[in-house]
Amino acid sequence: MPRWNFADTTEQKIRVYSLTITALIMFYEYLYGDTSTQFPAMYICIFVFPAVYFTNRIQKKYFPLIMEYVQATRIMSIIMTLSCFAIWCYTTYVRLSVPAMPSHLIYTQ
Which of 6, 20, 35, 68 has the fewest CB neighbours in a 10 Å radius? Predict the structure, then answer.
Protein backbone atom coordinates (compact mmCIF):
# COMPACT_ATOMS: atom_id res chain seq x y z
CA MET A 1 0.00 0.00 0.00
CA PRO A 2 1.26 3.49 -0.74
CA ARG A 3 2.07 5.54 2.34
CA TRP A 4 2.38 9.28 2.58
CA ASN A 5 4.99 10.38 5.08
CA PHE A 6 3.73 13.88 5.66
CA ALA A 7 4.81 15.86 8.69
CA ASP A 8 2.27 16.32 11.45
CA THR A 9 1.86 19.99 10.58
CA THR A 10 1.11 19.12 6.96
CA GLU A 11 -1.44 16.50 8.03
CA GLN A 12 -3.04 19.06 10.33
CA LYS A 13 -3.28 21.65 7.54
CA ILE A 14 -4.85 19.09 5.20
CA ARG A 15 -7.31 18.13 7.95
CA VAL A 16 -8.28 21.73 8.71
CA TYR A 17 -8.72 22.66 5.04
CA SER A 18 -10.71 19.52 4.25
CA LEU A 19 -13.05 19.91 7.20
CA THR A 20 -13.47 23.65 6.56
CA ILE A 21 -14.42 23.02 2.93
CA THR A 22 -16.84 20.29 4.06
CA ALA A 23 -18.42 22.64 6.61
CA LEU A 24 -18.79 25.37 3.97
CA ILE A 25 -20.40 22.91 1.56
CA MET A 26 -22.86 21.82 4.24
CA PHE A 27 -23.64 25.45 5.14
CA TYR A 28 -24.24 26.22 1.46
CA GLU A 29 -26.53 23.18 1.24
CA TYR A 30 -28.38 24.33 4.34
CA LEU A 31 -29.10 27.70 2.76
CA TYR A 32 -29.52 26.89 -0.94
CA GLY A 33 -29.54 23.12 -1.16
CA ASP A 34 -31.63 20.84 -3.27
CA THR A 35 -32.05 17.09 -2.96
CA SER A 36 -29.90 16.57 -6.05
CA THR A 37 -26.95 18.27 -4.34
CA GLN A 38 -27.57 17.33 -0.71
CA PHE A 39 -26.85 13.63 -1.16
CA PRO A 40 -23.33 14.09 -2.58
CA ALA A 41 -22.67 16.67 0.15
CA MET A 42 -23.70 14.19 2.84
CA TYR A 43 -21.47 11.52 1.31
CA ILE A 44 -18.58 14.01 1.42
CA CYS A 45 -19.25 14.40 5.14
CA ILE A 46 -19.27 10.65 5.67
CA PHE A 47 -16.05 9.88 3.79
CA VAL A 48 -13.96 12.90 4.79
CA PHE A 49 -13.46 11.77 8.40
CA PRO A 50 -11.63 8.48 7.74
CA ALA A 51 -9.76 10.20 4.91
CA VAL A 52 -8.26 12.86 7.17
CA TYR A 53 -8.07 11.12 10.55
CA PHE A 54 -6.44 7.79 9.67
CA THR A 55 -2.97 9.31 9.55
CA ASN A 56 0.21 7.26 9.85
CA ARG A 57 0.58 8.28 13.49
CA ILE A 58 -2.98 7.17 14.32
CA GLN A 59 -2.47 3.92 12.42
CA LYS A 60 0.71 3.09 14.33
CA LYS A 61 -0.81 4.02 17.68
CA TYR A 62 -4.24 2.38 17.48
CA PHE A 63 -4.02 -0.14 14.63
CA PRO A 64 -0.51 -1.62 14.68
CA LEU A 65 -1.55 -5.08 13.53
CA ILE A 66 -3.91 -4.07 10.75
CA MET A 67 -2.17 -0.99 9.35
CA GLU A 68 -2.48 -2.20 5.75
CA TYR A 69 -6.26 -2.54 6.05
CA VAL A 70 -6.60 0.87 7.65
CA GLN A 71 -4.42 2.39 4.92
CA ALA A 72 -6.65 0.77 2.30
CA THR A 73 -9.69 2.24 4.06
CA ARG A 74 -8.04 5.65 4.06
CA ILE A 75 -7.18 5.48 0.36
CA MET A 76 -10.71 4.37 -0.51
CA SER A 77 -12.15 7.18 1.64
CA ILE A 78 -9.98 9.72 -0.16
CA ILE A 79 -11.14 8.40 -3.54
CA MET A 80 -14.79 8.44 -2.46
CA THR A 81 -14.47 11.95 -0.99
CA LEU A 82 -12.95 13.31 -4.20
CA SER A 83 -15.51 11.55 -6.41
CA CYS A 84 -18.43 12.81 -4.28
CA PHE A 85 -16.93 16.30 -4.40
CA ALA A 86 -16.77 16.09 -8.20
CA ILE A 87 -20.39 14.88 -8.34
CA TRP A 88 -21.45 17.68 -5.99
CA CYS A 89 -19.67 20.28 -8.15
CA TYR A 90 -21.31 18.92 -11.30
CA THR A 91 -24.83 18.72 -9.85
CA THR A 92 -24.51 22.19 -8.35
CA TYR A 93 -23.33 23.56 -11.69
CA VAL A 94 -26.22 21.89 -13.53
CA ARG A 95 -28.76 23.08 -10.96
CA LEU A 96 -27.52 26.66 -11.16
CA SER A 97 -27.11 26.78 -14.95
CA VAL A 98 -30.51 25.37 -15.95
CA PRO A 99 -33.06 28.18 -16.28
CA ALA A 100 -36.17 28.10 -14.14
CA MET A 101 -39.26 26.48 -15.59
CA PRO A 102 -41.95 28.97 -16.65
CA SER A 103 -44.94 29.04 -14.37
CA HIS A 104 -47.43 28.25 -17.15
CA LEU A 105 -45.72 24.84 -17.51
CA ILE A 106 -45.80 24.07 -13.79
CA TYR A 107 -49.49 24.65 -13.11
CA THR A 108 -51.14 22.85 -16.00
CA GLN A 109 -54.55 21.31 -15.49
Answer: 35
Rounded to a whole number of angstroms, the distance between the first and last alpha carbons of the chain is: 61
Q: Look up residue 92 and give its amino acid.
A: T
Q: Tell me: the pLDDT tens digits for 29-52? A: 999 988 889 999 999 999 999 999
Backbone angles phi, psi at 76, to 5 degrees: -65, -35
pLDDT (tens digit per residue) in 90-106:
999 999 998 877 777 77
Rounded (5°) CA angle 88-3-55: 65
The span from the CA of 60 to the CA of 41, in Å, is 31
Distance of CA 19 to the CA centre of its chain: 9
pTM: 0.84
Angle at 46 between CA 45 and CA 49, to 5 degrees: 85
Q: How many CA atoms lie within 13 A of 41 on its CB side?
A: 20
